[in-house]
Amino acid sequence: MTKRSRKYVQPGCLSQKKTSYEKIRDKNMEQNATIFESLGLKSLANGLFGSNSSTKKKSCKLVKSKTGSGNDDVDYEQDEGEEGMSSSNSLVGWILGYGRLAMAAAGKLSVVAIMVFIAAAISNFVSADPDPLQDVCVADLNNAVKINGFVCKASFSASDFFFAGLALPQPTNNLLGSTVTPANVMQIPGLNTLGVSLARIDFAPGGLNPPHTHPRATEIIFVLYGELDVGFITTANVLVSTTVKQGDIFTFPKGLVHFQINSGKGPAAAIAAFDSQNPGVQAIAATLFAATPPVSDSVLSKAFQISYQEVDAIKSKLGGKR
């Protein structure tokens, strides 16, 4: 039975073996400290990376107490800071600690440097998206449940990973003179969770793949034959364009408006690759003038500085509702 005169030993005073996570975390913080010290920020480096606990520290101190036998018993008690809360593994504690140091340094450092400190704190706790947790997860396209993708089919076969739709050119006798044939998760269920897809784009002479965006993917094209004028527009409204021919490659950054037009005298074709199983596509003209329900004429008229009659004319050509 514990004697009333003895001090209680807090669990935090006991020797504990570090977990793999703690070892990796400590190694990352040591590396970050070295970088900041090399930049002449030694004092801040020590403040940010010099401890494996929060700014509220705990320590263990030696105490003596008298027992009923008259002998001095040696024991340990935990000495807490003003809050007494350990946060060596607490994301909130680390961010608060970094925030205090960043605010204290605001008068001496640039905003960029302060943001680097905050990013360094978060990087110790946040990792990239995990890899697939199984070999394959063939999409069950008939299941109504969607979990940021598709649920997995119970069974699958080679046909779930095969598609022959890009082998031959497709007809281009349409308004734009181009046809896009996708090869994404909707055509190849085996692409589910794999983060990749393709498409083939066929062009008649003068054919256009109109300005559009892929909200979920970067695109890279390889020209099979023909000649294309290609380009994308940055968020600063800068046009980046060039001409590509057979065997050439061009890249369109994720989410930016881009286009391809056949500038040669004959047909052209290209293969496009995406870093998403379902990159999505928004054709700018169709999105605005053929939306359901329709975007109001007043919005389109003012945005494009055209008359209501011109808005109606464009909607009628693109199949939009007036």
TrEMBL record:
It comes from the Eukaryota. Mn(2+) binds at H212, H214, E219, H258. It is found in: Secreted, Extracellular space, Apoplast. It holds the Pfam family Cupin_1. Residues 72-83 have a biased composition (Acidic residues). InterPro entries: Cupin_1, Germin, Germin_Mn-BS, RmlC-like_jellyroll, RmlC_Cupin_sf. It catalyses: 2 superoxide + 2 H(+) = H2O2 + O2. Disulfide bonds join C137-C152. Oxalate binds at N209, H214, E219. Its EC number is 1.15.1.1. Residues 60-86 are annotated as: Disordered. Its main location: secreted. GO terms for molecular function: manganese ion binding; superoxide dismutase activity. Residues 164-312 form the Cupin type-1 domain. Keywords: Apoplast, Disulfide bond, Manganese, Membrane, Metal-binding, Secreted, Signal, Transmembrane, Transmembrane helix. Monomer. In the absence of manganese, it forms tetrameric and pentameric forms which show superoxide dismutase activity. May interact with bacterial adhesins thereby protecting the reproductive tissues from microbial attack. Has no oxalate oxidase activity. This is Nectarin-1. It comes from Rhododendron griersonianum.
